[in-house]
């Protein structure tokens, strides 16, 4: 069985969680090599398809189609010619979207690199066309084909642009890091447009990522293998309530639309209420998990530091009173300290260009 060399792109800081997720869909940790910003692995075509169908943390998946030394233009173009482009591009009119990066290479001019690659491909450059990535690092050049198309945080259910959106990939990482598995109540009391609650419910309910991917347009696409992947479901493990609420009327309206768009009516309960007035689902002490992405201050303009400290303090108090495990994304550890809880760090990542930490209370466990 032939294998494809893949690079699974992951937001820096989420690599370990992404590797755990790959293991959960049948790609063991012994078969992957974790690097900064991604994971190298050799995968079957079926595994390539399954990653897109089930993995919720990766940003995109690249197929490494050529690698070698390129110290001059002739060597670069000769390397590009080694690729069987008909497997990925098909008809002559198929456009390509080139992504070029050069680091410490004698071939440093990215525009000139792109021109040489385009000359070999003989395809028009087209925004939104088949992605082709060319990366030069010193003398080493790697050519990759984008198997994903749009970034994988675009799930297909989001119809609204929230003022401070949390990427679905980061929300999925928070859920995995929290230890929640669907058999205990999950609460997002500052839900915004609903990303955390929706990601959690879709994952626990065994719902796949259902949207088009670039590999489906390849001439080498295997419909039978894809049908096998899409026909292999995952168990519905969502046996406990998922609750999401927000005090802002606009955010709540988007939350309702997104829950409906994700097909989760009846699986996610929503409320338009401030944190102090929310009625959270109850569970034995230590079982409820509260996952939140509260304002960071510079993430939401016009919110005073004192008001934010009060919000974090209320969040900590409510979680403590419920005997719940609190998981939150913060940019300022001092605000997190206002919860009054002992917190451990689960991971660090950038959210919208802001360095943030995912922290969790340690007093209780799932």
Structure description:
This protein has two domains: 4-146, VC0802-like; 168-208 and 233-361, Vaccinia Virus protein VP39 (Rossmann fold, 3-Layer(aba) Sandwich), CATH 3.40.50. Helix content is 29%, strand content 24%. The protein has ten helices and 14 strands. The protein has helices spanning 15-24, 45-54, 73-81, 110-121, 168-178, 195-204, 223-230, 249-261, 305-321, 333-337, and strands at 4-9, 32-35, 38-43, 60-69, 96-103, 130-137, 140-146, 186-188, 242-246, 268-272, 289-292, 325-330, 343-351, 354-361. The chain has a seven-stranded mixed β-sheet with strand order 2-3-1-4-7-6-5. It starts with a strand and ends in a 5-residue tail after the last strand. 42% of the residues are buried. Mean pLDDT is 93; it is low at 299-303.
Shape: elongated
How does the helix and strand content classify structurally?
Answer: alpha/beta
What is the name of the CATH superfamily of the largest domain?
Vaccinia Virus protein VP39
Could you say how many structural domains there are in total?
2
* Poorly predicted ranges: 299-303
Number of strands: 14
Strand content: 15-25%
* Structure annotation, total helices: 10
| CA radius of gyration | 22 Å
Q: Could you give a short account of the major beta sheet?
A: 7 strands, mixed
State the distance separating the first and last CA atoms: 41 Å
Please state the second-level CATH architecture of the largest domain: 3-Layer(aba) Sandwich
Helix content: 25-40%
* Average of the residue pLDDT scores: 93
Which oligomerization state do the chains in this entry correspond to?
single chain
Overall CATH class of the largest domain: Alpha Beta
Strand order of the largest sheet: 2-3-1-4-7-6-5
- The helix-strand sequence is EHEEHEHEHEEHEHHEHEEHEHEE
